[in-house]
């Protein structure tokens, strides 16, 4: 178990806040983009008369040689961790964490097209991967990030994603709005990427990150198109 201090809270959208943590023990936190941490709030637990809270979150930042990492967290009414972070946590609070860990990462060589599909804070690992690609000028084939949410003001990292479209060759950001009409894609996220799969000559590698219902639906659609788990599909489920 490692120690982290909460150093900054950024209210990215009404329901998605960014939490920046810093390690007092390390100068450089090493991890692979796409990995997650197990965050522990109230880490000293029952000995202080308070039970700790543990949740897994994908890291939204990328390795940059610093001792910081960023999480973006969606508020879930009644959720113990999100209630604590949104309503009680303050700058300077200490947290424990395990990790970073996990295998929801990019292939060593990006030699096929990639579709990232996410909702809510499921954008986290993809923001980490894109930041890593942009910073290190990693060559890729086509990458598309399909992000589903209700309204334009609910899109996290919107300006940053538009910037990546300018600096990462072959990258496209496709936000999908289900409750608001706009000039972009209107409807649920599956409706944006599925038609493209039927016209491509080769299968892209598809990453899903978000709530269980969205991922189950997506896996079902892709299975009907002949996509195989692990070979063609990677998943990270939030709940």
Q: Keywords for this structure?
A:
single chain, 239 residues, alpha/beta, Elongation Factor Tu (Ef-tu), domain 3, 5 helices, 12 strands, 22% helix, 32% strand
Overview of this protein structure:
It contains five helices and twelve strands. With 239 residues, it is of the alpha/beta class. The chain has two domains: 2-101, Beta Barrel (Elongation Factor Tu (Ef-tu), domain 3), CATH 2.40.30; 114-237, Nucleotide-binding domain of ferredoxin-NADP reductase (FNR) module (Rossmann fold). Strands 4-3-6-1-2-5 form a six-stranded antiparallel beta sheet. The radius of gyration is 18 Å and the shape is globular.
Low-confidence stretches: none
Q: End-to-end distance, in Å?
A: 23 Å
- Which percent bin holds the helix content? 10-25%
Global structural class: alpha/beta
Nearest-angstrom radius of gyration?
18 Å
The CATH superfamily of the largest domain appears as Nucleotide-binding domain of ferredoxin-NADP reductase (FNR) module
**What is the subunit organization of this protein?**
single chain
Beta-strand share of residues: 25-35%
Domain unit count: 2
How would you write the strand order of the largest sheet? 4-3-6-1-2-5
* String of helices and strands: EEEEEHEEHEHEEHEHE
């Amino acid at each position: 178990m490692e120690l982290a201090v909460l150093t900054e809270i950024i209210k990215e959208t009404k329901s998605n806040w960014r939490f920046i943590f810093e390690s007092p023990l390390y100068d450089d936190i090493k991890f692979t983009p796409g990995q997650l941490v197990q965050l522990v709030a109230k880490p000293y637990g029952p000995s202080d008369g308070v039970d700790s809270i543990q949740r897994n979150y994908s890291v939204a930042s990328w390795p940059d040689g610093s001792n910081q990492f960023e999480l973006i967290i969606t508020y879930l009414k009644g959720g113990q961790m999100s209630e604590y972070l949104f309503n009680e946590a303050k700058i300077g609070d200490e947290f424990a964490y395990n990790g970073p860990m996990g295998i929801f990462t990019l292939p060593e060589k990006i030699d096929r097209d990639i579709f990232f599909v996410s909702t809510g804070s499921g954008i986290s690992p993809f923001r980490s991967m894109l930041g890593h690609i942009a910073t290190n000028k990693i060559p890729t084939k086509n990458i598309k990030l399909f992000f589903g949410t209700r309204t334009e003001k609910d899109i996290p990292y919107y300006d940053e994603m538009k910037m990546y479209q300018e600096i990462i060759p072959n990258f496209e950001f496709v936000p999908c709005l289900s409750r608001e009409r706009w000039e972009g894609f209107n409807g649920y996220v599956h409706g944006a990427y599925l038609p493209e799969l039927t016209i491509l000559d080769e299968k892209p590698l598809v990453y899903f990150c978000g709530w269980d219902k969205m991922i189950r639906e997506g896996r079902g659609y892709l299975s009907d198109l002949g996509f195989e788990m692990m070979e063609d599909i990677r998943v990270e489920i939030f709940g």
